alcohol dehydrogenase (Brassica carinata), 389 residues
Amino acid sequence: MDKTSSFSSHEGKPIRCKAAICKKAGEPLVIEEIHVHPPQAYEVRIKIVCTTLCHTDLAFSKYDSGPLARFPRILGHEAVGLVESIGEHVDGFKHGDVVLPVFHPHCEECRDCKSSKGNWCTRFAEDLVSNTRRYGMASRFKDSMGEDIHHFFFVSSFSEYTIVDIAHLVKISPEIPVDRAVLLSCGVSTGIGAAWRTADIEEGSTVAVFGLGAVGLAVGEGARLRGAAQIIGIDINPDKFAIGKKFGFTDFVNPTLCGDKKISEVIKEIAGGGVDYSFECVGITSVLSEAFLSTRTGTGKTVALGINPAAPTELDSFGLFRGKHVCGSLFGGLKPKLDIPILVDRYLKKELNLDSFITHELKFEDINKAFDLLEKGKSLRCILWMDKK
Ligand code: NAD
Ligand code: ZN
């Protein structure tokens, strides 16, 4: 934990620090000094130690209209941090704790949080756009001119300090290295959780994963941990196949080499009639339709993970009548405060392969290079170190 040792406390006062601001859709982020408010009730201010970027940050940096397009904005939602100060009514967190901010809330008190069936939080999960759930639209960030800066998914980790509501914060063991813990803040937990909690894959199952970014590869890792017999990876970028082998994938399909055949037909041939489980981890609706067609008639289950908020989806209605299932999954169906510590524990027991997700490391100032690497399909996760010079 030597990389986390130095931080200062400005308890109760605003902090001036550096943040990467997305000022306009599609433009590079700009690093500027900002003001971060002290935490209010039920909030914690954290010093980000390192952050990574997920495809969702890339997608939101480009939306130029509609309710999801908000600028200026501090993106970033995969991170690990240290508690710098706490607001009123904050139990269970103290200065110096190692914490993961998570975009998906877990209030632990509402009907859905108390149910074992899913990971919805009725109290807080509906609203993704207002600035803080408990205090309406008051922003926690201001630029040097005193103008508000929008948050992103209640995390905004592309900043040296950020404010997080305790419904979005998980305390973790300080034993896990921070550059492994950061992966569990979104994409990797989502993929593993989808295999484990949403699909509940049984031993000996056949699985197809569309899109081998960090989310899809993590689905493979989750399927491997559940004892799947066959895990087929589908990606238009063949560079992903070698890394897929490290996560237990047994077969690979490149859609660009399938000629006139539909990908679902190729998968049905490989898996003897269709897979038990398929996962869409790209965010393209036609890929979701193919994922659905690839599953076994009668019992097949498709899990939609890729995010494409604008597009309607077409599914084979005969397949639905014949007993196939499809469902979406946010944060892999994981209840953050309950399930992330379990994943940390499995990493510490050397059961979980987190190491192979890290393809690059950069200092925070080079964040636009990390966007470029992800966009070009060259990286899985690039660790951005806040303090590295
Ligand atoms: P990524 O960009 O690293 O990976 C996407 C992969 O899909 C790439 O390897 C790319 O080559 C491949 N691909 C692109 N077009 C394809 C096609 N037509 N067929 C097959 N493969 C194709 O992204 P990521 O960070 O792994 O995220 C994947 C998706 O998951 C994104 O849509 C992201 O927004 C979403 N996501 C969802 C959740 C959730 O809670 N549901 C959480 C995190 C991310
Ligand atoms: Zn809840």
Notes: The radius of gyration is 21 Å. Residues 1-8 have pLDDT under 50 and may be disordered.
